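Case study 2.
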Amino acid sequence: MRSAISVYLTGGEPFLHPDIFQMMEYANLRNMQISASTNGSILGDKIEQIIASPLSSLNISLNAVNPNEYERMNGAPKHEFYTVLENITNLVEKRTIRPN
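Prediction:
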């Protein structure tokens, strides 16, 4: 019998799911590679959990180069562009300084 070797968490915003980290652990216990895709807007309070999780890769879709284009492309308020940038920066900085 064959089993899955990877799982890609996407479709809407996966980090809105209340059990997202439990799903990652479940997949990890079954030796699956775990990837996720997010718009990055709600990662702020989840950064430590993301870093500690068994994620193999995380795709953050920014979809714009400035707040005006972000609003036009996503229909989201301009300030969310800066929230996403801040979340990306915090994630990278915290991941970089994480002790091994």
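The helical segments are 20-29, 47-52, 67-74, 79-97.
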